[in-house]
Amino acid sequence: MPSFNSSMPAPGSASPVPAARANPFAPRRGGARRAESAVRWVFRLATYFILACGLYIFGDIIVKGLPTVARGFQTTESFPYFTNTFLARPPETLHVFEHDGEKREMGDAAFRAFREAEAAKASAAGEPAPRFDTSSYAYASGGILPNIVGTVLLVLGSMAIALVVGVSAAVYLGEYARDTALVRFIRLAILNLAGVPSIVYGLFGVGLFVVFLGWGTSLLAGWFTLAFMVLPVIITASEEALRSVPKGFREASLALGATKWQTIRTNVLPYALPGILTSSILGVARVAGETAPIMFTAAFAVSDRLPWQVEKWSDFFFQGVMALPYHIYVVSSKIPQNEYTERVQYGTAFVFLAIVALIAATSIVLRNKLRGRYRW
Amino acid sequence: MEPSSSAASAPAARPLAAPPPPAAANDPAQTLIEIENLDFYYGAKQALSDINIRIPEKRVTAFIGPSGCGKSTLLRCLNRMNDLIDGASVKRGSIRIRGVDIHGRDVDPIELRKRVGMVFQKSNPFPKSIYENIAYGLRIQGIKNKPRLDEVVEKSLRGAALWDEVKDRLHESGLGLSGGQQQRLCIARTIAVEPDIILMDEPCSALDPIATAKVEELVHELKKQFTIIIVTHSMQQAARCSDMTAFFYLGKLVEFDATHNIFMNPKNPQTEAYVSGRFG
């Protein structure tokens, strides 16, 4: 065992260090030490458990979903010479049948063309039109383009509404309102709203926007319903972000004769923006992912047009859209399950994860840019 | 800006041509700020009671006293920064600047603060460039004219004895400056809007002795143009750079007199005990 005092005398020391009788710093056995290592293991295992669960879920979705997307890649005749049917086509029914002793899988449009071609071939040969004994699987062919478009539209619209209303409310509560009982009550109410289940927001949206205001199942109703759902998170987090801006900036600005709004606009909000963006990243993930609020207010199981294919522009806001989370819900619980629907389920989940990750990454990059600009 | 006139040439019609306080009888300075019977409360807690003081124009007035004596509170009354604190209010008395009651109905605190600037204890430059820090006060008044802004920035930085140190990096962040430079930047930012009065709330409490000396020198320079009120914990600082000194204790004004009288010949035994370091 190495002794604490070295046998070599320290250079320049007047008197040698007296030899230590025993190491006073030797570890002691006891309850506190055992508890220390036990607790550390509990924390460590909890973390690893979460990590394992997350990895399993993501891995499962990627392993089963990626082939669906990969299978969609096709070359085309004209620019850009490739396409992905899963990302760029609406959903179709899949027809599975046997032909000339081999098993064929075809989307609805392809199958109709194939059947007509076969019938023409048969009539040219003077034979009766062939009959195909097909099994049909709804949604199992084609892609999810309208769902991607619908989800992106829902996210953009509802986040725009939620940020404008939420940041305004946060500025009011944090900067203008005096700390009265009423304001404290409003804050508490907002905090509690964050815990309300999303289906309740969905029903609220049906009652207010769809029925009472007569907007029907529409983008607009979905925007407002989703916006209301994330508002509590945005308000609370924005208020926190505003609070973290040092008081000195406000005082210095006001002392120079700036009005309150000038102060907030130039010397509070810009510095709070990174924090507000952080909270909106969480908001984006939630808005994109929730099924319950949109299933009665905005989502269609099937829509034969893309959202911009409307007759007049005002129809844009009053049309229902297909959306990724609702599509996952429909294909995994509303239709008979088989090997063909599983592809769509996992493919959709994979694309959905990728989109949320992309939006979150963009917000994080934007936030870090802003953070770099203002430091104190 | 008000024309700077000496007491002798002041017309009788001036609202504040009141006789100067007796302590400053041989000082020709005119009274600029007149505080009468001021009671100030934070909620139910009284912070200032019955303050009466007349602060002369173009002089440096120091507020001294132990922590919690109300000197900072009184300072922040003068530009109504206390309005920002919930429950803070003047319950009695008045503060008049050039004869105008600053709590009057026809006084806009925004306009008041343009005339009564403030330098804070903790230097607080905005996280913007040095140039933008100084131009801020003008920009919020809607001045966009670039040559005019350039001119004011240079003049203010020169006025705050900072120009030579920063003229090559005007567009770098003000937060890259040293503590003392930051505080002088804050002073430059304050004088850029050409106030009549500059309030300084312990401006040197976070600075080293050399930076402190520079700020004190600056204060001496600035009093030619501005009326300065400085709150300080350092009695040496009050003695070095002020013309008048007010000693506060427990929310009351104990003594207000020319600085050399306060330090050499205080009338009140409490003042004497404080300035000689026996308490506080």
Main features:
heterodimer, A: 376 residues, mainly alpha, MetI-like fold, 2 domains, 3-stranded antiparallel sheet, two-stranded antiparallel ribbon, 8% strand, extended, B: 280 residues, alpha/beta, Rossmann fold, 6-stranded mixed sheet, 4-stranded antiparallel sheet, 10 helices, 24% strand, globular
Topology diagram in text:
The complex is a heterodimer of chains A (376) and B (280).
Chain A: H1 31-71, E1 73-75, E2 82-84, H2 85-88, E3 91-99, E4 102-107, H3 108-124, E5 135-142, H4 145-176, H5 181-193, H6 198-212, H7 219-243, H8 247-255, H9 260-267, H10 269-289, H11 292-295, H12 324-333, H13 339-373
Antiparallel strand pairs in A: 1-2, 3-4, 3-5
Helix pairs in contact in A: 1-13, 4-7, 4-10, 5-7, 6-7, 7-10, 8-9, 10-13, 12-13
Chain B: E1 31-42, E2 45-56, E3 60-64, H1 71-78, E4 88-97, E5 100-101, H2 109-115, E6 116-119, H3 130-139, H4 146-159, H5 163-166, H6 179-192, E7 197-201, H7 209-222, E8 227-231, H8 235-241, E9 244-249, E10 252-258, H9 259-264, H10 269-275
Parallel strand pairs in B: 3-8, 3-9, 6-7, 7-8
Antiparallel strand pairs in B: 1-2, 1-4, 4-5, 9-10
Helix pairs in contact in B: 3-4, 3-6, 4-6, 6-7
Describe the structure.
Chain A has 376 residues and is mainly α. Chain A is built from 13 helices and five strands. Chain A has helices spanning 31-71, 85-88, 108-124, 145-176, 181-193, 198-212, 219-243, 247-255, 260-267, 269-289, 292-295, 324-333, 339-373, and strands at residues 73-75, 82-84, 91-99, 102-107, 135-142. Chain A is extended and about 115 Å long. The two termini of chain A are 50 Å apart. With 280 residues, chain B is an alpha/beta fold. Chain B has helices at residues 71-78, 109-115, 130-139, 146-159, 163-166, 179-192, 209-222, 235-241, 259-264, 269-275; strands at 31-42, 45-56, 60-64, 88-97, 100-101, 116-119, 197-201, 227-231, 244-249, 252-258. Chain B has a six-stranded mixed beta sheet, sandwiched between helices. A four-stranded antiparallel beta sheet of chain B has the order 2-1-4-5, with helices on one face. In chain B, strand 4 and strand 5 (100-101) form a beta hairpin. Residues 1-25 of chain B have low confidence and may be disordered. Classes of the chains: A mainly alpha (376), B alpha/beta (280). The A-B interface holds A 178-179, 246, 248-249, 251-259, 262, 266-267, 271, 374-376 and B 79, 81, 84, 86, 110-111, 113-114, 117-118, 120, 122, 124-127, 136-137, 140-141, 173, 175, 186, 189-190, 193.
